[in-house]
Amino acid sequence: MTRNAPFQWPIRSSSSGGRRHLLDLDDFDRAEIEQYLATAEAMREILRRATPKTPALTGRTIVNLFLEDSTRTRVSFEIAGKRLNADVVNMTGSGSSVQKGESLVNTVRTLEAAGADVIVLRHPASGAAHLAAAQVHGSVINAGDGLHAHPTQALLDLLTIRDAFGTIAELRVVIVGDVLHSRVARSNLWGLTTMGADVTVCGPPTLLPRELPIGLPPVRVEHHLDRAIEGADVVMALRLQRERMTAGRLPSLREYSRLYQINDARLERARPNVLVLHPGPMNEGIEIDTATAHGRRSAIEDQVTNGVAVRMAVLHLLTGGSAVSNGVEPAGARRG
Ligand code: CP
Fold it and tell me: Containing H/E element for 298?
Protein backbone atom coordinates (compact mmCIF):
# COMPACT_ATOMS: atom_id res chain seq x y z
CA MET A 1 0.00 0.00 0.00
CA THR A 2 1.43 3.37 -0.92
CA ARG A 3 1.52 6.25 1.46
CA ASN A 4 -0.80 8.32 -0.69
CA ALA A 5 -3.32 5.59 -1.44
CA PRO A 6 -6.87 6.93 -1.50
CA PHE A 7 -9.22 5.92 1.27
CA GLN A 8 -10.98 2.68 0.43
CA TRP A 9 -13.84 1.02 2.26
CA PRO A 10 -13.34 -1.54 3.42
CA ILE A 11 -9.59 -2.10 3.50
CA ARG A 12 -8.88 -5.77 4.02
CA SER A 13 -6.35 -5.86 6.77
CA SER A 14 -4.52 -8.98 5.63
CA SER A 15 -2.04 -9.13 2.79
CA SER A 16 0.00 -11.85 1.13
CA GLY A 17 2.83 -11.08 3.51
CA GLY A 18 0.65 -11.62 6.58
CA ARG A 19 -1.78 -9.41 8.43
CA ARG A 20 -0.47 -5.89 9.03
CA HIS A 21 -3.49 -4.14 10.51
CA LEU A 22 -6.26 -5.26 12.85
CA LEU A 23 -9.36 -3.31 11.84
CA ASP A 24 -12.18 -5.79 12.55
CA LEU A 25 -12.76 -9.56 12.69
CA ASP A 26 -14.82 -9.65 9.47
CA ASP A 27 -11.95 -11.12 7.46
CA PHE A 28 -10.75 -13.64 10.05
CA ASP A 29 -11.45 -17.32 9.53
CA ARG A 30 -11.65 -19.80 12.39
CA ALA A 31 -8.01 -20.87 12.03
CA GLU A 32 -6.74 -17.31 12.35
CA ILE A 33 -8.90 -16.59 15.40
CA GLU A 34 -7.58 -19.82 16.96
CA GLN A 35 -4.05 -18.61 16.24
CA TYR A 36 -4.68 -15.31 18.05
CA LEU A 37 -6.31 -17.08 21.02
CA ALA A 38 -3.48 -19.61 21.29
CA THR A 39 -0.92 -16.81 21.17
CA ALA A 40 -2.85 -14.94 23.87
CA GLU A 41 -2.72 -18.07 26.03
CA ALA A 42 1.05 -18.17 25.58
CA MET A 43 1.21 -14.49 26.57
CA ARG A 44 -0.86 -15.30 29.65
CA GLU A 45 1.81 -17.80 30.67
CA ILE A 46 4.38 -15.01 30.44
CA LEU A 47 2.16 -12.74 32.55
CA ARG A 48 2.10 -15.39 35.30
CA ARG A 49 5.90 -15.42 35.63
CA ALA A 50 7.70 -13.68 38.48
CA THR A 51 9.04 -11.21 35.91
CA PRO A 52 6.15 -10.90 33.46
CA LYS A 53 8.08 -9.56 30.49
CA THR A 54 9.41 -10.76 27.16
CA PRO A 55 11.73 -8.87 24.78
CA ALA A 56 9.57 -9.60 21.72
CA LEU A 57 9.10 -5.94 20.75
CA THR A 58 12.44 -4.51 21.85
CA GLY A 59 13.29 -1.56 19.65
CA ARG A 60 9.71 -1.12 18.41
CA THR A 61 7.62 1.95 19.17
CA ILE A 62 3.89 1.81 19.86
CA VAL A 63 1.79 4.97 19.96
CA ASN A 64 -1.54 4.64 21.73
CA LEU A 65 -3.60 7.38 20.09
CA PHE A 66 -6.83 7.65 22.06
CA LEU A 67 -9.10 10.38 20.74
CA GLU A 68 -12.07 9.08 22.73
CA ASP A 69 -12.23 8.17 26.43
CA SER A 70 -11.15 4.72 27.55
CA THR A 71 -9.96 2.95 30.68
CA ARG A 72 -9.70 -0.80 29.93
CA THR A 73 -8.47 -0.67 26.34
CA ARG A 74 -5.98 2.14 26.87
CA VAL A 75 -4.47 0.75 30.05
CA SER A 76 -4.27 -2.80 28.74
CA PHE A 77 -2.58 -1.72 25.49
CA GLU A 78 -0.06 0.28 27.51
CA ILE A 79 0.65 -2.64 29.84
CA ALA A 80 0.79 -5.06 26.90
CA GLY A 81 3.34 -2.94 25.06
CA LYS A 82 5.50 -2.61 28.16
CA ARG A 83 5.33 -6.34 28.90
CA LEU A 84 6.66 -6.88 25.36
CA ASN A 85 9.48 -4.39 26.04
CA ALA A 86 8.35 -1.92 23.38
CA ASP A 87 8.73 1.83 23.72
CA VAL A 88 5.19 3.00 24.46
CA VAL A 89 3.91 6.52 23.88
CA ASN A 90 0.43 7.52 25.02
CA MET A 91 -1.42 10.34 23.36
CA THR A 92 -4.89 11.80 23.71
CA GLY A 93 -6.57 14.63 21.86
CA SER A 94 -6.21 16.92 24.83
CA GLY A 95 -2.86 18.70 24.77
CA SER A 96 -2.04 17.57 21.21
CA SER A 97 -2.27 19.37 17.89
CA VAL A 98 -5.58 17.59 17.28
CA GLN A 99 -6.95 20.44 19.42
CA LYS A 100 -5.59 22.89 16.83
CA GLY A 101 -7.48 21.14 14.09
CA GLU A 102 -4.81 18.75 12.78
CA SER A 103 -6.48 16.04 10.74
CA LEU A 104 -6.35 12.34 11.56
CA VAL A 105 -4.43 11.71 8.32
CA ASN A 106 -1.75 14.26 9.19
CA THR A 107 -1.66 13.08 12.80
CA VAL A 108 -0.91 9.45 11.93
CA ARG A 109 1.61 10.46 9.26
CA THR A 110 3.32 12.64 11.82
CA LEU A 111 3.41 9.83 14.37
CA GLU A 112 4.92 7.45 11.82
CA ALA A 113 7.48 10.05 10.75
CA ALA A 114 8.46 10.36 14.40
CA GLY A 115 9.10 6.63 14.63
CA ALA A 116 5.86 4.83 15.45
CA ASP A 117 5.83 1.22 14.22
CA VAL A 118 2.32 0.56 15.52
CA ILE A 119 -0.51 3.03 16.03
CA VAL A 120 -3.30 1.88 18.33
CA LEU A 121 -6.26 4.10 17.51
CA ARG A 122 -9.44 4.81 19.49
CA HIS A 123 -11.64 7.30 17.64
CA PRO A 124 -15.28 8.44 17.84
CA ALA A 125 -15.81 8.15 14.06
CA SER A 126 -16.68 4.87 12.34
CA GLY A 127 -14.07 4.11 9.69
CA ALA A 128 -11.29 6.11 11.34
CA ALA A 129 -9.02 3.07 11.70
CA HIS A 130 -9.44 2.21 8.01
CA LEU A 131 -8.59 5.78 7.10
CA ALA A 132 -5.47 5.70 9.27
CA ALA A 133 -4.40 2.30 7.91
CA ALA A 134 -4.39 3.67 4.38
CA GLN A 135 -1.83 6.29 5.37
CA VAL A 136 0.95 4.39 7.10
CA HIS A 137 3.57 1.79 6.28
CA GLY A 138 3.41 0.30 9.76
CA SER A 139 0.48 -1.25 11.60
CA VAL A 140 -2.81 0.21 12.77
CA ILE A 141 -4.85 -1.50 15.46
CA ASN A 142 -8.47 -0.49 15.81
CA ALA A 143 -9.09 0.09 19.53
CA GLY A 144 -12.71 1.08 18.83
CA ASP A 145 -14.01 3.33 16.05
CA GLY A 146 -17.43 4.89 16.51
CA LEU A 147 -20.25 2.43 16.03
CA HIS A 148 -18.17 0.21 13.76
CA ALA A 149 -15.76 -2.24 15.38
CA HIS A 150 -13.74 -3.18 18.45
CA PRO A 151 -11.87 -6.31 17.40
CA THR A 152 -9.55 -6.72 20.39
CA GLN A 153 -12.59 -6.59 22.71
CA ALA A 154 -14.19 -9.40 20.69
CA LEU A 155 -10.99 -11.47 20.83
CA LEU A 156 -10.76 -11.13 24.62
CA ASP A 157 -14.44 -12.04 24.89
CA LEU A 158 -13.82 -15.17 22.82
CA LEU A 159 -10.87 -16.10 25.02
CA THR A 160 -12.95 -15.62 28.18
CA ILE A 161 -15.74 -17.80 26.82
CA ARG A 162 -13.31 -20.50 25.75
CA ASP A 163 -11.63 -20.45 29.15
CA ALA A 164 -15.00 -21.15 30.75
CA PHE A 165 -16.31 -23.85 28.42
CA GLY A 166 -13.26 -25.21 26.62
CA THR A 167 -14.97 -24.40 23.32
CA ILE A 168 -17.03 -21.70 21.60
CA ALA A 169 -18.71 -23.79 18.91
CA GLU A 170 -22.41 -24.47 19.45
CA LEU A 171 -22.66 -22.43 22.64
CA ARG A 172 -25.84 -20.36 22.89
CA VAL A 173 -24.70 -16.76 23.25
CA VAL A 174 -27.16 -13.91 23.85
CA ILE A 175 -26.04 -10.30 23.36
CA VAL A 176 -28.45 -7.96 25.15
CA GLY A 177 -29.07 -4.24 24.95
CA ASP A 178 -27.98 -1.38 22.77
CA VAL A 179 -26.86 -3.41 19.76
CA LEU A 180 -27.53 -0.49 17.42
CA HIS A 181 -24.75 1.66 18.90
CA SER A 182 -22.36 -1.14 19.86
CA ARG A 183 -19.07 -1.72 18.06
CA VAL A 184 -18.47 -4.50 20.61
CA ALA A 185 -21.60 -6.30 19.42
CA ARG A 186 -20.63 -5.95 15.77
CA SER A 187 -17.13 -7.38 16.20
CA ASN A 188 -18.48 -10.12 18.44
CA LEU A 189 -21.06 -11.09 15.81
CA TRP A 190 -18.18 -11.77 13.43
CA GLY A 191 -16.03 -13.56 15.97
CA LEU A 192 -18.73 -15.68 17.58
CA THR A 193 -20.37 -16.82 14.35
CA THR A 194 -16.99 -17.61 12.78
CA MET A 195 -16.22 -19.79 15.80
CA GLY A 196 -19.55 -21.61 15.42
CA ALA A 197 -21.56 -20.12 18.29
CA ASP A 198 -25.35 -19.91 18.09
CA VAL A 199 -25.93 -16.16 18.56
CA THR A 200 -29.08 -14.25 19.51
CA VAL A 201 -29.23 -10.47 19.82
CA CYS A 202 -31.87 -8.98 22.08
CA GLY A 203 -33.03 -5.44 22.79
CA PRO A 204 -35.89 -3.00 22.25
CA PRO A 205 -36.88 -2.43 18.60
CA THR A 206 -35.51 1.13 18.74
CA LEU A 207 -32.04 -0.20 19.64
CA LEU A 208 -32.19 -3.38 17.59
CA PRO A 209 -33.73 -3.40 14.14
CA ARG A 210 -35.38 -6.69 13.17
CA GLU A 211 -33.25 -6.58 10.02
CA LEU A 212 -29.60 -6.18 10.98
CA PRO A 213 -27.55 -4.01 8.61
CA ILE A 214 -26.51 -5.70 5.40
CA GLY A 215 -23.06 -7.18 5.70
CA LEU A 216 -23.40 -8.48 9.25
CA PRO A 217 -23.61 -12.24 9.74
CA PRO A 218 -27.17 -13.56 10.12
CA VAL A 219 -28.20 -14.15 13.74
CA ARG A 220 -31.49 -14.54 15.61
CA VAL A 221 -33.15 -11.24 16.64
CA GLU A 222 -35.40 -11.40 19.71
CA HIS A 223 -37.06 -8.44 21.42
CA HIS A 224 -38.28 -10.39 24.47
CA LEU A 225 -35.46 -10.97 26.96
CA ASP A 226 -36.99 -13.91 28.83
CA ARG A 227 -37.40 -15.78 25.54
CA ALA A 228 -33.89 -14.88 24.37
CA ILE A 229 -32.21 -15.98 27.58
CA GLU A 230 -33.89 -19.40 27.77
CA GLY A 231 -31.14 -22.04 27.76
CA ALA A 232 -28.31 -19.55 27.17
CA ASP A 233 -24.71 -20.53 27.95
CA VAL A 234 -23.40 -16.97 27.74
CA VAL A 235 -25.20 -13.68 28.32
CA MET A 236 -23.35 -10.55 27.26
CA ALA A 237 -24.86 -7.30 28.54
CA LEU A 238 -24.04 -4.18 26.55
CA ARG A 239 -23.66 -0.69 27.93
CA LEU A 240 -26.52 1.65 27.17
CA GLN A 241 -24.56 4.23 25.15
CA ARG A 242 -26.38 7.35 26.14
CA GLU A 243 -23.67 9.55 24.57
CA ARG A 244 -24.33 8.08 21.10
CA MET A 245 -28.11 8.11 21.25
CA THR A 246 -30.30 10.54 19.51
CA ALA A 247 -33.28 11.50 21.63
CA GLY A 248 -36.41 9.42 21.86
CA ARG A 249 -35.11 5.87 21.54
CA LEU A 250 -36.25 4.86 25.02
CA PRO A 251 -39.33 5.87 26.97
CA SER A 252 -37.32 5.85 30.24
CA LEU A 253 -34.28 4.23 31.81
CA ARG A 254 -36.56 2.62 34.44
CA GLU A 255 -38.62 1.02 31.67
CA TYR A 256 -35.48 -0.16 29.90
CA SER A 257 -34.14 -1.73 33.09
CA ARG A 258 -37.45 -3.44 33.82
CA LEU A 259 -37.48 -5.08 30.40
CA TYR A 260 -33.80 -5.64 29.61
CA GLN A 261 -31.68 -5.62 32.76
CA ILE A 262 -29.55 -8.72 33.32
CA ASN A 263 -30.11 -9.86 36.89
CA ASP A 264 -30.04 -13.09 38.87
CA ALA A 265 -33.81 -13.65 38.63
CA ARG A 266 -33.71 -13.46 34.83
CA LEU A 267 -30.67 -15.71 34.64
CA GLU A 268 -32.67 -18.55 36.22
CA ARG A 269 -33.98 -19.15 32.69
CA ALA A 270 -30.46 -19.65 31.33
CA ARG A 271 -28.29 -22.76 31.75
CA PRO A 272 -27.26 -23.27 35.41
CA ASN A 273 -23.62 -22.62 34.51
CA VAL A 274 -24.35 -19.47 32.48
CA LEU A 275 -21.45 -17.05 32.04
CA VAL A 276 -22.16 -13.31 32.33
CA LEU A 277 -20.02 -10.87 30.34
CA HIS A 278 -19.98 -7.09 29.95
CA PRO A 279 -17.36 -5.16 27.97
CA GLY A 280 -17.48 -2.24 30.39
CA PRO A 281 -17.83 0.42 31.49
CA MET A 282 -21.02 -0.71 33.22
CA ASN A 283 -24.06 1.34 34.11
CA GLU A 284 -24.79 -0.80 37.18
CA GLY A 285 -28.47 -0.83 38.02
CA ILE A 286 -29.44 -0.08 34.39
CA GLU A 287 -28.33 -2.79 31.93
CA ILE A 288 -26.94 -5.06 34.65
CA ASP A 289 -27.74 -5.53 38.32
CA THR A 290 -24.87 -4.84 40.71
CA ALA A 291 -25.11 -8.23 42.44
CA THR A 292 -25.03 -10.03 39.09
CA ALA A 293 -22.12 -7.95 37.80
CA HIS A 294 -20.02 -9.02 40.77
CA GLY A 295 -21.60 -12.41 41.43
CA ARG A 296 -20.51 -16.02 40.85
CA ARG A 297 -21.68 -16.11 37.23
CA SER A 298 -19.74 -13.00 36.24
CA ALA A 299 -16.48 -13.17 34.26
CA ILE A 300 -16.29 -9.40 33.80
CA GLU A 301 -12.98 -9.01 35.63
CA ASP A 302 -11.60 -12.04 33.74
CA GLN A 303 -12.39 -10.16 30.53
CA VAL A 304 -10.23 -7.26 31.69
CA THR A 305 -7.38 -9.58 32.71
CA ASN A 306 -7.55 -11.39 29.37
CA GLY A 307 -7.44 -8.02 27.60
CA VAL A 308 -3.75 -7.63 28.40
CA ALA A 309 -2.79 -11.07 27.04
CA VAL A 310 -4.91 -10.61 23.92
CA ARG A 311 -3.38 -7.21 23.19
CA MET A 312 0.11 -8.62 23.69
CA ALA A 313 -0.75 -11.34 21.17
CA VAL A 314 -2.10 -8.81 18.67
CA LEU A 315 0.96 -6.56 18.97
CA HIS A 316 3.27 -9.56 18.65
CA LEU A 317 1.55 -11.09 15.62
CA LEU A 318 1.06 -7.86 13.67
CA THR A 319 4.74 -6.98 14.03
CA GLY A 320 5.84 -10.27 12.52
CA GLY A 321 6.01 -12.46 15.60
CA SER A 322 5.41 -16.14 15.10
CA ALA A 323 2.06 -17.58 16.11
CA VAL A 324 1.58 -20.24 18.73
CA SER A 325 -0.56 -22.96 17.24
CA ASN A 326 -0.40 -25.94 19.56
CA GLY A 327 2.07 -24.85 22.17
CA VAL A 328 -0.32 -24.03 24.96
CA GLU A 329 -3.49 -25.95 25.58
CA PRO A 330 -6.64 -23.98 26.37
CA ALA A 331 -7.38 -23.68 30.07
CA GLY A 332 -9.53 -26.55 31.35
CA ALA A 333 -13.25 -26.12 31.01
CA ARG A 334 -14.67 -24.58 34.17
CA ARG A 335 -18.30 -24.98 33.28
CA GLY A 336 -18.27 -28.26 31.43
N1 CP B 1 -14.58 -2.16 26.71
C2 CP B 1 -13.96 -0.98 26.50
O3 CP B 1 -13.64 -0.63 25.37
O4 CP B 1 -13.75 -0.23 27.61
P5 CP B 1 -12.98 1.16 27.62
O6 CP B 1 -13.84 2.14 26.88
O7 CP B 1 -12.82 1.51 29.08
O8 CP B 1 -11.67 0.97 26.92
Answer: none
